[in-house]
Amino acid sequence: MPSRLPVQDIFAGLVTSIGTAIRYWFHYTLVAFAWLGVVPLTACRIYKCLFTGSVSSLLTLPLDMLSTENLLADCLQGCFVVTCTLCAFISLVWLREQIVHGGAPLWLEQNQQQPANVAARANEAPAPGNEAGVAEQPAAPGPAAAPEENAVLAEALEVQAEPEEMDLDNEDEEEAGAEDAADANNAAQDDMNWNALEWDRAAEELTWERMLGLDGSLVFLEHVFWVVSLNTLFILVFAFCPYHIGHFSVVGLGFEEYVKASHFEGLITTIVGYVLLAITLIVCHGLAALVRFQRSRRLLGVCYIVVKVSLLVVVEIGVFPLICGWWLDICSLEMFDASLKDRELSFESAPGTTMFLHWLVGMVYVFYFASFILLLREVLRPGVLWFLRNLNDPDFNPVQEMIHLPIYRHLRRFILSVVVFGSIVLLMLWLPIRIIKHLLPSFLPYNVMLYSDAPVSELSLELLLLQVVLPALLEQGHTRQWLKGLVRAWTVTAGYLLDLHSYLLGDQEENDNNANNNQQARNNNNNNAIPVVGEGLHAAHQAILQQGGPVGFQPYHRPMKFPLRIVLLIVFMCVTLLLASLVCLTLPVCAGRWLMSFWTGSAKIHELYTAACGLYVCWLSIRAITVLLAWMPQGRRVILLKVQEWTLMILKTLIVAVLLAGVIPLLLGLLFELVIVAPLRVPLDQTPLFYPWQDWALGVLHAKIIAAITLMGPQWWLKTVIEQVYANGIRNIDLHFIIRKLAAPVIAVLLLSLCVPYVIAAGIVPLIGVTQEMENLVQRRIYPFLLMVVMLMGILSFQVRQFKRLYEHIKNDKYLVGQRLVNYERKSGKSSTATHSSSSQE
C-alpha cells in the first residue's frame, strides 16, 4: 500500500461522493417538494375551490393548481388543512378500535345475536343468585345509573321476548325458520367480518421511511397520490357536506344574520350541519331497523356514533372551557376596572384571539379544579364524592361513555357541570371581590397595564418571572403536601364539629375489613351482572356501565339528622372557600406591593409581578415555619446545629447563585447584546445604550436554553459537570467543585469573548493610525466579525475531519479486501512495509 493515495484515486472518490450527494439531494428535494409543496398546496386549492360557492371555480381548478400566486400562504394554510384531515383520520381509526374492542351500544347490536342462542337463553331458568342480583341492582346506591339500568333491563327483556313470539307465530314453518336462522347467522358473521378489518399485515410491510420516501425509492409518489385523494375525500365528507347542510338550514330558518354577527360563521354553520346530520342518521337508522336492513342499519348506527362522539368532544373540550373562561372574565370585571363594553370592543377587534384566551383560561380552571378533586379523593372516605367522576379510576373511559350513554345523560351532566363550576366561580371570585371593594376600597382594581416607557423592560420582567420565580415555586413538592394537610385538618375539624367524622374520613379500625368486603362485593356484582353481547373489553365496559354503587365504597356511621348535618357541612365549606379566596386575593398582592415599593417607590407595577413576589415570600415564610416546627421536638442544641448547618448551606447557595444566576447570565446577555442586538438595531452614527438589568434578564433565558441544549446533546465536560451539580442538589452542594469545574471555565470564556475584541478595537487599532470612522466601525462590528471568524473556523475544522474520513473511506474501498490490506507495490523493499502495516491494522 502506498504511503499516500494517488491524486487520481482521491479525485475519483470525490467525484463519486459528489455524485452520490447530488443524487440524494435531488431525491430529498423531490420528497420535500411533494410532501411540503404539492400535498398542502393541492389541499388548500381544493378547499378554496369547494368553498367558493361557484361552478366556475370547479372549471378553473386545474389552472388554479398551477398558479404561482400566494404560494407560501397557500402552503401554510394547506398544511393546516392536511393536519386537520390527518387528525380526523387518526380519530376515526382510534374510534373504530374503541368500538371493536369495547363493543358497540346495545341498541346497535340487539338484533345481531344468533336466534338459536337467544331462544335457548330465554328458555333457561335464571339462577336464584342472578335473580337477586338483577332485582337488587336498580336499588343500589349508584348516583345516576338507575335510568340506564332500567333501559338495559328493558332491552334484555325485549331481546328475550322476541324469540318466544317468533316461535308462537311460526310453529307451522319450522324449516323456513331454520333457514332464516342460518341466513341471519351468516349475515351476522359477515357483519362481524366487515366490522373488524385486519390492517396489521399491511402495516407491518409499510414503514415511515418507505412511506415518506426517505429510503431512496420512488414508491412515495403513490402515497402522495393517495394522501391527496384522502384529503379531498375528507374535505368533502367532513367539511363540505356538513357546512352546506348547516348553511341551507340556517338560511331556511332565517338565522343567517345572527350567525354572521358571531364572527364565526363557518364554525357555527358546520356544527349546525353536524347536529342535523346526526338527527338524520338516527332517523334513517330507525327506518332501516323497521324494514330489517341489517347492514344498512349497522352502517347508519356507526356513522351516528362517529358524529355523536365528535360533537361530544367539541362540547367537552371546546364549549365547556369557553363557557368557564367567559364566566370567569365576567365575574372578575371589577377586579380589573373593566366593563362588558370593553370586552365587547376587544371581541369585535380580535374575535379569534379573544375566544382563544378565554378558552385557555377556562381550560386552566378546569384542570386545576380536577387536580383539587383528585387531592380530595386522597383525603376523604371512598364514596363521599360519588357524584363526581374519578379520573384515576382504571375502569373510567370517557370515550366508552360517549359511545354507550344516551344524549340526554350527557346533556344532564353538562348542565350540572356548568352549574357547579359557575357557582364556585361566584363563590370564590365575584363575592370576594365585592367584599374587598366594600372593606378595602383603595385595594382594587389590580394594575394590569403595560408601560413601554418604563425604566425596566416589561419583557425582561416577564421572562424573569416565567423562567426563575414560577418554576422555583411550582417545582416544589411541599406545596401539594401543605394543601393536603390543610384539607385533612379542615375535614377532621368539620367532622368532629358536625359528628360526620365517620362519613368524611371513615372508621380507621375497619379499613382492612371494609377493603375485603368491598372486593368481595365487587366480585359479586360482576358475577351477577346482566349477560351482555360480546366478550373481553366489551363485557367489561358493559359491566362498568351497569354496576350499581360507586367504586371503592366504604360504609359509614349515619348520625341523627343526617340531611341537616350535610347542609351545615356545605355551608361551612362555602364559608371556608370564601375566606380562603379572600386571603389568596389580598395577602400575596399586599406583600408584593410592600416589597416592590422599596425598589420602585410609588411607581405602579404590574400586579402579576407583585403577586408572584408576594406569593414567593409567603411560600418561603411557610417553609421556614414548618421546618422550625419540625425541629422543635428535638431540643435547643439540635436546633442550633441545624441552624448552623442551614446557614452554611444558604451561604454556599448564595455564592453559587451569584455566580451561576448573576454573573454568568449578565455576561451572556451583554455578549448577546454586543454580537446580535446592537449591530442590528443601532446605526453607526449613534451610540448604543446598555441596560444591565435587561441584559441580565435576557441572559437568564439564554443560559437556560444553553443548559437544556447541553443536557440533550452528546456527552462532553460541560454536560458531565451540570449533571453532577444537579445530582448533588442543594443539601449536598459542593462549592469548590462548582467554582473550579463550572463557574470559573464558563466565566473565563465569556470574559475573554468580551475583553479580547474590546482590547483589539480600543487598544491595538488606534495604534495603527486609522481614521476615526474606521475606529468606530471596528469597535461596532468587531464582535459579529469575530463570531463569523469562529464559526468559519468551526466549519473548516468540520470539513477537514470529513475529508479525512473520506480519505480513509477511499483507501479502504480500493485496497482493503476483507480485513487485510493488499500489497500492490512491485518492489520487495516496500513489501515488508506493507505486510507490517497490514498486521498492525489487524
Automatic annotation (TrEMBL):
Task: Give the residue ranges for region: Disordered.
Answer: 117-147, 162-189
The answer to whether UniProt assigns keyword Transferase to this entry is yes
Give any Gene Ontology cellular component.
membrane
Which pathway is recorded for this entry? Answer: Protein modification; protein ubiquitination
Q: What is its EC number?
A: 2.3.2.27
Q: Keywords, A to Z?
A: Membrane, Transferase, Transmembrane, Transmembrane helix, Ubl conjugation pathway
Chief place where the protein resides: membrane
- Name of the protein: RING-type E3 ubiquitin transferase
- What is the protein's species of origin? Coilia grayii
